[in-house]
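Residues determine shape. Take a concrete instance:
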Amino acid sequence: MEQIRIISEKYKLTYFNIRGRAEQIRLMFAVAQVPFQDLRIDATEWPSFKSSTSWGQLPMLEVIMEEEDGNHSDPSNIKITQTMAIIRFLAKKFGFYSNDHYQAAHIDEVGYVVGELLDEWYKYEFESSDDQKKAVQKEALVTTHFPNYFEKLSRCHLKYGGPYLLGEKLTFPDVMLAQLLGSVEEEFDGGDGVIDQYPVMRTLKDAIWTIPSVKTYAGQRL
């Protein structure tokens, strides 16, 4: 049987019509300057769309393989769910990772730490619409979770010498953290001074959000 030669890959990211867990993935594409289709579905579409996902969850990334003749081959397409799986996949594609197993383990380690803090943030964003409960969650973020994680991440930055979390090379935890810091600053009207209490957090946030392709994305995003 004649083999079909794949000559290019295109990306389609599917999520709800909010920033949410998909925003760190969208930011990865912006940093890498790689185009992608940003498919957003609303709540009424989700029940019928759910069966097309591997685990009944979003976000979902589709890697669309384009054949030599310009056609798309559905059997060759890859579907990936789980936010961290998508991020690590793209990090390897875009060079935000390491080919060295030991360095890659350290990158994963820091990435999962940032992921823990993002989970605390998502509790604030999604788990309650009650103003009183939101106020309690915000207090927990500002007085407990942010200081705890920002201090540890700042020490990590100091250990490796910067300018990024793990040294001279930008890696996917930097993008994840920058997305969080951008959301905190936007949601809390300047971060309530939280970010500026930790100069490393301010430096890392600005390092990502001042990249020209990211500035363009920030000006256009929903």
The mean pLDDT is 91. The CA atoms of residues 61 and 85 lie 10 Å apart.
